């Protein structure tokens, strides 16, 4: 495809596709070789070098979606996160991270960084109306050794929004590299490069895969930054198998359509939930009552498919989840099917009740990954589960 910027659906469907020269089939062939010629070739290919034909093709699609020069695909979101972080952090360096982070990223930092001599600071100031204090809290956390600022927006589970432009401007002033986990928004709803963020990370297990059947990760950035990540990546070995690369390419053809359907359902459900007497509060950046709705509107093209809501204390969360018939109580998120989980029982189970309360996570908090089913059917399922749970 030419370099003229195409629409999102066209990028999803076509960018990076491989031509089937032999049989003229409509879709990209899968090249499963783990052994390629080294003589008379321009590129020495090997799956762990992230440069098989299918890996390269899918990387182009992801770069085109994020508007970056280059991209890489990994075996999981955490392979992408860990390789990227370690590529830019040396012994003695310091990193500033947003406090409200994906659990796996948080664990990587607190369990592993000390032995590499990497210092870290989690910033305060996130939560209610976070953006208004975010500049000062990030600025205060910066030291002369700070090499990276790492953010996630919207973040799990309270859908807090971080001001990307503010963080990028602050970091530039100090010559610091910025990284974002853009998983919850997907490239359809948010393109952090436009706001000055340097490196964009995705768990492709989520909206890129979209069908709850793939584990993969991706990083999009300038060629210079990708080269640096590649240098470490080939040593750490977190590449993705070509069979899964092909499945991910197939899934991504419908990503823009899927994400827009998720957006539409979540928008409708968030305002509907907000009006129910059984729901104490709803966290969704698309709601005008969200403390950072204006900021979300400025930096997002759609508000995403993730909603969190809190049941009133008289409704038992576990009974509510068991009473659901359509919505599946299930780990992970971003599949075409609606799923729900309790952060208290899963992602935040290891925290003490006091720590959870401090982070605003109650036992009645539900993290709801809105699917693409008909909205009325989702509402009906929630209604019947609430009614049944109240009666018990
Ligand atoms: C799931 C997830 C990850 C980790 O991705 P894996 O593919 O499970 O390794 C990272 N960040 C966010 C926001 C996620 O939701």
Describe the protein's architecture and organization.
- This protein has helices at 8-14, 53-66, 77-88, 103-112, 131-141, 164-173, 186-189, 223-236, 242-252, 255-275, 293-299, 317-323, 353-358, 375-391, and strands at 70-74, 94-98, 119-123, 146-152, 177-181, 199-203, 217-221, 279-283, 306-311, 328-329, 339-341, 365-369.
- The chain is of the alpha/beta class and 392 residues long.
- It has 2 domains: 8-252, Type I PLP-dependent aspartate aminotransferase-like (Major domain) (Aspartate Aminotransferase, domain 2, 3-Layer(aba) Sandwich); 256-391, Alpha-Beta Complex (Aspartate Aminotransferase, domain 1), CATH 3.90.1150.
- α2 packs parallel to α9 and α3 packs across α8.
- The longest helix has 21 residues, at 255-275.
- Mean pLDDT is 94; it is low at 126-131.
- The structure holds pyridoxal-5'-phosphate.
- Pyridoxal-5'-phosphate (PLP) is lined by residues 76-78, 102, 104, 152, 156, 181, 183-184, 203, 205-206, 215, 217.
């Amino acid at each position: 495809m030419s370099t003229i910027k195409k629409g999102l659906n066209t990028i999803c469907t076509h960018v990076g596709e491989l031509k089937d020269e032999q049989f003229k089939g409509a879709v990209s062939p899968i090249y499963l070789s783990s052994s390629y010629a080294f003589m008379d070739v321009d590129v020495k290919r090997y799956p762990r070098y992230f440069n098989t034909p299918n890996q390269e093709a899918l990387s182009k699609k992801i770069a085109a979606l994020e508007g970056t020069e280059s991209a890489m695909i990994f075996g999981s979101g955490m392979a992408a996160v860990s390789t990227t972080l370690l590529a830019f952090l040396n012994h003695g360096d310091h990193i500033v991270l947003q406090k409200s982070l994906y659990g796996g990223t948080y664990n990587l930092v607190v369990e592993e960084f000390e032995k590499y001599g990497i210092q870290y600071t989690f910033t305060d100031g996130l939560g209610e109306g976070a953006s208004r204090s975010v500049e000062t809290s990030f600025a205060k956390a910066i030291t002369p050794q700070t090499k990276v600022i790492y953010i996630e927006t919207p973040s799990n589970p309270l859908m807090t929004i971080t001001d990307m432009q503010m963080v990028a401007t602050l970091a530039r002033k100090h010559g610091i590299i910025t990284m974002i986990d853009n998983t919850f928004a997907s490239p359809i709803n948010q393109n952090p490069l436009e706001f000055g963020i340097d490196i964009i990370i995705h768990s492709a297990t989520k909206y890129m895969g979209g069908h709850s059947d793939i584990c993969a990760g991706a990083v999009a950035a300038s060629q210079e930054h990708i080269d640096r990540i590649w240098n470490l990546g080939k040593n750490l070995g977190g590449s993705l198998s070509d069979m899964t690369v092909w499945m991910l390419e197939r899934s991504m053809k419908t990503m823009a359509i899927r994400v827009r359907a998720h957006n539409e359902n979540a928008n409708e459900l968030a305002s509907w939930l907000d009006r129910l007497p059984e729901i104490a509060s709803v966290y969704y950046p698309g709601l005008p009552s969200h403390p950072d709705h204006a900021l979300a509107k400025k930096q997002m093209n759609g508000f995403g498919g993730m909603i969190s809501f809190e049941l009133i204390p008289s409704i038992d969360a576990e009974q509510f989840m068991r009473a659901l018939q359509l919505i599946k109580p299930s780990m992970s998120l971003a599949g075409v099917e609606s799923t729900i989980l309790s952060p208290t029982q899963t992602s935040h189970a290891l925290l003490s009740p006091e720590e959870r309360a401090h982070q605003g996570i109650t036992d009645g908090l539900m993290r709801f990954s809105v699917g693409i089913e008909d909205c009325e059917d989702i509402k009906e399922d929630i209604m019947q589960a609430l009614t049944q749970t109240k009666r018990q």
